[in-house]
Design brief:
about 80 residues; three-stranded antiparallel beta sheet; two-stranded antiparallel sheet; 5 strands; globular
């Protein structure tokens, strides 16, 4: 697992500052999915590695399943506001 420094932004849900992305494979790219580790909010990366809000229903079903598994693994309860 590696970490990439990203431009500091606020989580759109909990407003905490976010400035890093941890990932198992490659550096994040535009449209990659990100989860706030404070509240579990779902976002996607822009080309400049800032984040924009994302809704679960907009993702491919396999990505949706992966997000749900990650939420569960991290201990986040299912939250309708992030769907």
């Amino acid at each position: 697992m590696s970490t990439t420094k990203t431009p500091e932004v606020q989580c759109h849900a909990c407003l905490r500052p976010l400035d890093r992305a941890s990932h198992a494979e490659a550096t994040p790219e535009a449209d990659d999915v990100s989860l706030c580790l404070y509240c579990g909010a779902l976002s996607q990366f822009n080309a400049d590695l800032t984040l924009r809000p994302c809704v679960l229903a907009s993702l491919h079903p396999s990505e949706q399943a992966e997000v749900r598994k990650t939420w569960e693994r991290l201990g986040f309860k299912w939250r309708n506001r992030f769907t």
